[in-house]
Design brief:
The complex is a heterodimer of chains A (about 500) and B (about 120). With about 500 residues, chain A is an all-alpha fold. Chain A has a domain of about 220 residues. Chain A contains 21 helices and 2 strands. Chain A is globular and about 70 Å long. Chain B has about 120 residues and is mostly helical. The chains are: A mainly alpha (about 500), B mainly alpha (about 120). Chains A and B meet through helix 5 and helix 6 of A and helix 3 and helix 4 of B.
C-alpha cells in the first residue's frame, strides 16, 4: 500500500472529481466528499513528507514501466515540501469554503465548482510529483483549465474577462514550456528529468539547449507571475470567488516556482544556469522591480482584494530574489518563503472572505468600522498582515531574516537595505486597511454587521495562528527548507 | 542551401509569429482564440517535424524495414491536441458568457464599460 502513495496523491483527487460532479443535486454532499478527499490527500502528503525527511528519495514507476520509457514519479525533500503546502492549504480551506461558496456560487453549480476545484488541486499535485517533462506540461494544463473555470465563477462580470486574460497568458506560458521541452527532446531523446540531467552536460554548449532554457524560463515565469509577466494575476485574484483566491494565491504560483527551481537547479544544473548563462543577473533586476513596483501600486488600491493581489506579485519577487543570489542560503530563503507566504496570504484572503461574507463587498468604504463589528476577523487580518510585513515573531520575519542574510553573504548590501524599505511599503498598505477598519465609524448600512460564522473563522485563525507559531518555532521551516534546498542543489530528482 | 531543407521549421516559425501576433494585436476575443490556436498548431508541427527521419516509415515491425520515424513525439502531440481542444472549448465558453454579460466581445468596448485596472 505505502509504495503506491506517490500515485495515490494524484489519483485520489482525479477519481473523486467526477463523483463529486455526479452529486450535482446536493451541494452539501459534494462539499463533504471534497473535504474528505482533500484531507486524505493531505494525509498522504504528510506520510510522504516524513518518509523522505531522512534525505531518502522515493521513486514510483507509473504502470510498472521502467523509466525512461515509462512515466516516473519521484519524491524528494523538495517536492514533498511543496506537497505539504498544497495539501495543508486545501485541507484548511475546505471547512472555510462551505459557507463562503454557498453564498457566492449559485446552488445548481456548487457540485461543478467543487469538481473543478479537485481537478485544479490534483493538477497542481501532479506537477509537483512527476519527474517527466511532458507530464509537467499536461498537469499544468489540467490545473490551469480548472482554474479558469473557477475564476470565471466569480459574481462580478469582470471575473469572466479576467479569466479570459488568464487563459490567454497562461496558455502562451505553457506553450512556451512545451516548445522548450521539444528542444530538450531533440538534443537528448528523453523526457525523464533525471535522464535529462544526466545527458544535458554533453550537449549543453549548443544554441538549441540555450533556446530551450530560454523558452522554459519565460514560459514558467508567465505562470508564476514574475514581474513584468504578472498582468493576469491582479484581475484573476480580485474577481475570483473568495475561496478560489485563497487556494490559488497560496498554491498556484508556488508550484510554478517549484517547477522553475527544478528545471534551473536539477535539470539544467547550477553551472549551466547561473555560471554559463548568468541567470542570477537576469532574475535579480526583475525581482527587485517586481518587489518595488507592485508594492507601490498596492499602496494606492481601494479594493482590498486587489491590494493583496499586487502584494502577491511583490512576494513572488522576494522568492525570485532569493533564487537570483545563486547561493544555498538564498535558495533556502526562497523555498522557505513558499511555505511562509502560503500560510500568510491564505490567512489574509480568508479574512477577506469572512469580510465579504458579512459586508457584501471589499472596497475600503465597506470596511469602515469592521474592527469593532468583526473583531476576530480583523484580528486575524492584522496578525497575518504583520507576517506579510515581516515583523519579528511571525513567519514572514523568518524568511526576511534569511533573505537579508543571503543578500549580505553575497555582498549585495544595497539590496538588504532595499528589503527593509519594501517592508515599510507593506506596512503602509496593511496600515491603510487597519486604519479604515479600526478608526472609522461604519455607515448605517453596515452598522448591524455581526462576526463571521465560526466555520469560516476557525480555519482563518488556524492559518493566522500558524504564522505566529512558525514565526516563533522557525526551526521546522528552516530545517525543511534546508533539506529541500540540498535536494534541489544535489542534482537530478 | 541547407536552410531550405529545414523548411518545416521555417513554417513553424512563421506560424508561431502569426499566431502570437494575432493574440497580441487583435481586440476581438474570438480572433484572439484563433491566434492562440495557430500558435499552438505551430508547436504541433514542430514536434511532428522533429520526429521525422528521412526514409523512415511508421513504427510498425515490417520485414526489410530498418528505419522508423520516432513515434513518441506523435503521441505527445495527440495529448497536446486534446489539451488544445479543451482550451479552445473553455475559451469559447467564456466568450459566450462575456457576450451575455457585456453585449460585445471587443476588448476595447469591454474596457469602456468596466474598469479593469
Amino acid at each position: 500500500m505505502t509504495e503506491h502513495l506517490p500515485a495515490l496523491q494524484v489519483a485520489i483527487g482525479l477519481t473523486a472529481a467526477p463523483v463529486v460532479m455526479m452529486l450535482g443535486r446536493s451541494g452539501r454532499l459534494a462539499w463533504a466528499l471534497t473535504t474528505l478527499t482533500c484531507w486524505a490527500t493531505f494525509a498522504v502528503a504528510l506520510a510522504l513528507f516524513f518518509e523522505v525527511s531522512d534525505g531518502s528519495v522515493i521513486t514510483y514507476q507509473m504502470g510498472g514501466w521502467a523509466p525512461p520509457w515509462g512515466i516516473e514519479y519521484v519524491i524528494d525533500a523538495a517536492n514533498a515540501w511543496v506537497l505539504v503546502i498544497i495539501g495543508m492549504i486545501s485541507a484548511v480551506v475546505m471547512p472555510f469554503a462551505r459557507r463562503s461558496v454557498e453564498r457566492e456560487i449559485s446552488a445548481s453549480r456548487i457540485a461543478m465548482f467543487y469538481c473543478a476545484f479537485l481537478l485544479a488541486n490534483a493538477g497542481l499535485i501532479g506537477i509537483t510529483v512527476t519527474a517527466d517533462a511532458f507530464n509537467i506540461f499536461v498537469f499544468f494544463e489540467i490545473s490551469a483549465l480548472a482554474s479558469y473555470a473557477l475564476i470565471a465563477m466569480g459574481r462580478d462580470r469582470r471575473a469572466l474577462i479576467s479569466s479570459f486574460q488568464y487563459l490567454i497568458m497562461g496558455t502562451v506560458g505553457t506553450t512556451f514550456l512545451l516548445i522548450g521541452i521539444g528542444f530538450l527532446y531533440i538534443m537528448t531523446g528523453t523526457l525523464n528529468l533525471g535522464d535529462l540531467a544526466a545527458r544535458l552536460p554533453e550537449v549543453a554548449d549548443t544554441r538549441t539547449i540555450r533556446a530551450a532554457f530560454g523558452f522554459i524560463a519565460v514560459g514558467i515565469s508567465l505562470k508564476l507571475a514574475l514581474f513584468p509577466l504578472h498582468l493576469w494575476l491582479p484581475n484573476a485574484y480580485t474577481y475570483a470567488p473568495s475561496m478560489v483566491t485563497v487556494f490559488l494565491s497560496a498554491t498556484a504560483t508556488k508550484v510554478a516556482i517549484y517547477v522553475l527551481l527544478r528545471f534551473v537547479y536539477s535539470v539544467f544544473g547550477f553551472q549551466f544556469s547561473f555560471v554559463d548563462l548568468s541567470m542570477g543577473w537576469v532574475l535579480m533586476p526583475l525581482a527587485l522591480l517586481g518587489i518595488l513596483v507592485p508594492s507601490l501600486v498596492a499602496v494606492f488600491q481601494t479594493n482590498v482584494k486587489r491590494l493583496l493581489a499586487y502584494s502577491s506579485v511583490a512576494q513572488v519577487g522576494y522568492m525570485i530574489l532569493g533564487i537570483s543570489f545563486a547561493s544555498t542560503l538564498g535558495l533556502m530563503a526562497s523555498v522557505m518563503h513558499l511555505f511562509n507566504h502560503a500560510i500568510t496570504k491564505a490567512a489574509l484572503f480568508m479574512a477577506i472572505g469572512c469580510l465579504v461574507y458579512r459586508l457584501g463587498g471589499i472596497s475600503l468604504t465597506h470596511l469602515a468600522g469592521a474592527g469593532q463589528r468583526m473583531p476576530w476577523t480583523m484580528a486575524a487580518f492584522v496578525t497575518a498582515g504583520l507576517s506579510l510585513i515581516g515583523v519579528p515573531l511571525t513567519a514572514g520575519f523568518v524568511t526576511k531574516w534569511h533573505l537579508i542574510q543571503a543578500a549580505l553573504e553575497g555582498g549585495y548590501w544595497p539590496i538588504a537595505l532595499l528589503l527593509l524599505g519594501t517592508s515599510l511599503l507593506a506596512a503602509l498598505y496593511i496600515w491603510k486597511v487597519v486604519e479604515v477598519a479600526y478608526f472609522q465609524t461604519p455607515d448605517d448600512e453596515h452598522a448591524q454587521v455581526k462576526e463571521a460564522p465560526l466555520s469560516m473563522l476557525i480555519p482563518t485563525w488556524v492559518l493566522a495562528g500558524s504564522t505566529v507559531v512558525f514565526g516563533i518555532y522557525g526551526n521546522f521551516t528552516v530545517n525543511s527548507a534546508r533539506a529541500a534546498a540540498t535536494a534541489l542543489m544535489g542534482g537530478a530528482p | 542551401m541547407e536552410w531550405l531543407g529545414l523548411y518545416n521549421y521555417w513554417v513553424v516559425v512563421a506560424l508561431m509569429m502569426i499566431g502570437f501576433y494575432i493574440v497580441i494585436a487583435q481586440d476581438n476575443l474570438i480572433k484572439k482564440l484563433v491566434g492562440l490556436n495557430i500558435f499552438q498548431t505551430s508547436v504541433f508541427v514542430f514536434f511532428i517535424s522533429l520526429a521525422y527521419l528521412e526514409g523512415g516509415t511508421a513504427p510498425i515491425a515490417l520485414e526489410g524495414v530498418t528505419q522508423y520515424s520516432n513515434p513518441l513525439p506523435h503521441v505527445l502531440i495527440l495529448t497536446a491536441i486534446v489539451v488544445g481542444v479543451a482550451l479552445t472549448a473553455m475559451g469559447l465558453a467564456l466568450v459566450v458568457r462575456v457576450q451575455e454579460a457585456y453585449g460585445t466581445i471587443e476588448e476595447d468596448e469591454i474596457h469602456q464599460q468596466d474598469d479593469l485596472h
